[in-house]
Design brief:
alpha+beta; elongated; 15% strand; 3 helices
């Protein structure tokens, strides 16, 4: 069984040999990871803005739909006042009528029907199964 000196020597040897490769890979992976994280945040912001907008109008509701002209398939939230579509979040150049042309309008959601963040926390299971070797809380 190798001693601590041999293990440290191997780590140093591998660090010198493969360290530059790891640095280059980390630099290359940084930009796509940042872009993916930013797009996830943008989707959350668009939904939050649409829900906030729907709470300010009379008989407001939101409908999740997809822009047929957008090749990336990002969701678009359409805000309704009663049965009239009034806005889309995020803003898109596609007319709202085209966004909801093939959508099921019965799937609209009122902001009051959506769970609050506190409600979502309460719905989490209290006792999650532990993995072997994990300390008790």
């Amino acid at each position: 069984m190798p001693g601590k000196g041999q293990a440290a020597g191997r780590i140093i040897k591998w660090g010198v040999k493969y360290g530059p490769h790891v640095v280059v890979l980390a630099q290359q992976a940084k930009e796509p990871a940042m872009k993916a994280a930013q797009s996830a945040l943008d989707r959350q912001k668009a939904k939050r803005r649409a829900i906030e907008h729907a709470t300010t109008v009379r008989d407001g509701s939101v409908l999740k739909t997809f822009d047929p002209t957008n090749p990336h398939g990002e969701p678009v939230w359409v805000v309704f006042s009663g049965d009239d579509p009034i806005a889309a979040h995020p803003a898109t150049t596609t007319p709202i009528a085209q966004l909801i042309a093939n959508s099921d309008l019965a799937m609209r959601t009122r902001p009051s029907d959506l769970p609050s963040p506190a409600d979502r926390l309460r719905q989490l299971p209290k006792n999650l199964p532990r993995r072997p070797g994990q300390p008790r809380p």
